[in-house]
Amino acid sequence: MAMGKLKIGIIGMGGIANYHIWGIENSPDAELYAICDVNEKALAERGETLGIPPERRYSRHEDILADSEVDAVMIGTPNMNHFAVALDAIRFGKPFALEKPIALDTKEALVLREELAGKPVPHIVCFSYRYRGAVRYARELIESGKLGEIRHVYSQYLQGWAISEEVPLYWRFSKELSGSGALGDLGSHILDLHRFLVGETTSVVGHGDTIVRERDKLDGSGKGEVDVDDFCHVLGRMENGISSSMQISRFAYGRGNYQRIEVYGSKGSLVYNLEAEDTLEANFEDEEGDFRFLDVPESYKSDQMQAFFDLLKGKDDGLNATIEDGYINQRTIDAIIESFSEGRWVSAQ
Ligand code: SOE
Questions:
Q1: Phi, psi of 314 (to 5 degrees)
Q2: Cα–Cα distance, 41 to 300 (Å, whole number)
Q3: Does domain 6-128 have CATH number 3.50.50.60?
Q4: Which residue owns the Cα nearest ligand 1 atom 2?
Q5: CB–CB of 283/289 below 8 Å?
Q6: What is the architecture, at CATH level 2, of domain 132-300+322-347?
Q7: Which atom of ligand 1 is closest in space to residue 99's alpha carbon?
Q8: What is the pLDDT of residue 95?
Q9: pLDDT confidence band for 2 (50 / 70 / 90)
Q10: Nearest-CA neighbor of 19 among 67, 56, 73, 74?
């Protein structure tokens, strides 16, 4: 690996790339070196704005992966390409950060897991809320036993942007292109946070459905079918007798990116709310009081992109999500989808 700044390539110049670029620009350890997108027009425009010379703008992901100057890549394509690009990154031995969900289904996720087992490559999966200080502090308090035995985890992840029927049929509304809907986009984060905070989900039962069933196709050729969930409500049995619920929707009016997790134990409770990210609400038996706000100590705050660069430089705090975590996440998503159609509890293991 290079001694100076890490030369980072970005694959997929859509919305999430702005976050990747921000992370690179705000790190003393990395520079944006090359970019890749299948849309040549967007590639040229972004290349100009970002000052990336034409010879370091790639339209094929294989070519940016083959560039030996590139130390690592960020993979932020639409979901349907996560698997193929990550698989090639492993085959090229190129370190990568991969957006969630890691694949369209468990079968694909398993291939990534098996490929990596034979050929380890430094990587992270972008379950980005793991890096929130409040989440890390909650994890520590739970691990230290401050809450006693954990009984319940209740979570919500709500957005409202899909309410408008004017929103066209882009990839997030297609099973073939995104695997699932609100479940894979938002629920994947909550499922990961449940594991990060309290443990494994062993079985699930859920209700998911589509509210707006047709939307305008992007090519102007009329309406097309939305075949993924707009919302999903899931009960989970977790290890150690913990019972969880999660409410996930793109149809929660007025909600932008509302994420809340409540953890109830035998001796205490914690509430994490993304909108109040530097605090936790807490109620502990040994304080004999009501709920109060706890400030999150500075030392718990972290940044996903910097954590990736640290990993590449040999510093791993063990809290990054890996393909193994992505695989377990995908397995749970698939169990939930099965439960939607079968209307029964399904094993997530
Ligand atoms: C869009 O719905 C989105 O950007 C997701 O793709 C992210 O993973 C989520 O955290 C915020 O919303």
A1: 95, 5
A2: 41
A3: no
A4: 185
A5: yes
A6: 2-Layer Sandwich (3.30)
A7: 8
A8: 98
A9: low
A10: 74
Q: Whose CA is nearest to atom 3 of ligand 1?
A: 185
pLDDT digits (tens, 9 = 90+) for 226-267: 999 999 999 999 999 999 999 999 999 999 999 999 999 999
The closest residue, in CA terms, to atom 4 on ligand 1 is 16
**Nearest ligand 1 atom, CA 259:** 10
Q: What is the dihedral angle through the alpha carbons of 167, 170, 175, 178, rounded to the nearest 10 degrees?
A: -110
Distance 184 CA to ligand 1 centre (A): 10
d(CA 56, CA 311): 24
Ligand 1 probe mutation, 257, 259, 260, most atoms within 8 A of CB: 257
Q: What is the rounded average pLDDT of the residues 302-319?
A: 97
Is residue 336 within 8 Å of residue 187, measured between CB atoms? yes
Instruction: Kindly compute the dihedral angle of the four CA atoms of residues 164, 166, 171, 174, in this order, to the nearest 10 degrees.
Output: 70
CB of 189 closer than 6 angstroms to any ligand 1 atom: yes
What is the distance in A from the centroid of ligand 1 to the CA of 145?
Answer: 32
Domain layout of the chain by residue ranges: 6-128, 132-300+322-347
CA angle 8, 125, 314 (to 5 degrees): 60
Compute, in angstroms, the gap from residue 185 CA to the centroid of ligand 1: 6
Q: CB of 257 closer than 6 A to ligand 1?
A: yes
Statement: the pTM of the whole predicted model exceeds 0.85: yes
Pocket lining: 18 vs ligand 1, CB cutoff 6 Å: no
